[in-house]
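Suppose you are handed a protein chain with no further information: no name, no annotation, nothing but its sequence. What can you learn? This example shows the usual starting point.
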Amino acid sequence: MNKISPPLLFFCFICCFLFFTISDVSADNTDIYERGDTLSFGVTLLQNGTYGDPVPNQKIQFYDETENTLLGFSITDETGYACIEWTIPYTHSLGPTLLNATFRGNQSEYLYPSVQFYFFELYSSTTANIEANASIYVPDDFMQLDVSVFDDSGFTLGDVNVSVFFEDTILDTSTTNQNGSTSFRIKCELDVFSLGDNQLLITVHDDSNRFYSSSSSLYTFEIHKLETQFHSNYSEIIHASLNDSSSFHFQLASFDSPIAGVPITILIDYEVYEIQQTNESGFIDFFLEFDESFELFNHSLAIVFDGNSRYNTVTTKHSIILSSPLAVISTNSSYILNELVSINVTVSDIFNRTLYDLNVVIHDLSLDIFHYPIDSLSNISAAFRFEIVGKKGLRKFAILIQNQFVNQSVSYIATIWSRPTITLINSSIDGYAFPRQVIHFEFTIINETHPLSHCVLYVLLESSVLMSIYTTVNGLASFDITCPSETGKYQYVIQYDGNETRYETPVCFIYSINICEQVPLTVLLIDRFTSCPLQQIHLDFSLIGLNGVAAENMGFTYEWLNISHSVVSNSDGYLHIVIPMPNTSGCYILKYEIEENSRFLNKTGIVAICISHDEILASQGIGLPGIFITSSISTLIVCIPFFRRKYLLS
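A reasonable first move is to predict its three-dimensional structure. Written in structure tokens, the prediction is:
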């Protein structure tokens, strides 16, 4: 169709003759208009040719020669221009149409009549009425479009070509029937269309033989995949037991319609367990055996449909909580009162596998005290270390096992014992003795700060019982033993066998004795006396063997202020030495050496002797009284002038 803007028809008039011009319209380029269009139809009246002067104030008449109808008239303006606006009626016949503009002339102004013609083709507009079977489609569905074509008067048009375009691609072309209708069946393929909004262009082609114009209409539709869901009777959390099995059934459907023949992936703990095809009812069925490959407690189950060109993807997730009878093993159930106890608790499942990451607590039910683990070791569930307090005897404890999946308690009875204490309070030796020497011992046995009276203590040597002794009311036991005749190291054991009735544990005390012919010595400074007038220091020593025997006739050589002297101990092991007073105060060292004999070993050592400043002054004859008197006299001499002056002034 070649449709142009409303024409201006210029008719040029001259005196005595006419020169006409029209729009440049060739036979090959005919103007086309539709009924209902408005034309601006105008002319210019000129004299003396095309480039002559305009003729104003002249009447121009406009005619539709095709319909033989006067369209109207207009008076030329100062430029010689006259124009009318004509809306083409819908009752006008279609096809070639001829218009003219006529000037009847004007004798008074000597203007000759003139006429000009304008030719165009008149078409009818067309419209398409589109009806579709839906506005939202699923991939691979067929779209049914029914198109009816009408002219500008509302009459249907038969034998008209109609095409359907998507973007720049023609999808189908059809011709309307005698009722002006045609249908299209278009498959919604994702190779052509896209998910979401899509737009078709419905084009009615023009018919130049019957003078019908072309027209286009848009049809918008959507393509969406179908939503899917799994149907089952399972809750989000599924409970099962180890060493058991369960069967599972899931149905895949879309809007309650089962989906058959599609693959479903089964994931256990995010790993593919199996892939199944849905049956004709959309079901999959599978079987799980919870054997040793499954750990206790939480597992994930996911049923996944990855979707296809028609259906959306969908996943259903469940948690499988596996339970099992728990075996709880505690390392001991016998504890000592007021002592730290170490308890290792091991929790295992039905397959005897140790369980970790558990909250294990020991509850002392008698005292309502909770004990918590100090560590989780690699081979046990929990390690405890705590002090046993309260009363001895039989007490009830509970082991509490908890996490987000289990809450279990195991009770047990523990025996709480008290441990007596055997203490050596007196011994006649200090770890050494002569062969066949008689030794005296005194022991006490106490339990929970109370002495154990009238209990039996056994004295053992090399696992042999030497004697048994009953304690006094104060828990005291004293006895003498005769050492073996053979030299060597011996261990004596003082043993208490305990008392189950009073929940007292057995206890023993081990004392080691070295039996030898020569024993080490102990040197004790038992007294020190300073003789200031004589400027001497008196020292008394006691020489005793570690077996408690006094060392008599032992040569004692000492060195003091670089001067050496020797003395001999008496029968009681005592010796007395006198050393000179040094000239200055300070700490001095007395070195000594004791010669060995047949019974005692030699010994060397030192004694630190500290001399004070007062002792030095006292030994030099001054002492504290002298210092006091001297100071008093000096003060009195200083004060005499003062008192004398005060007396004279008064």
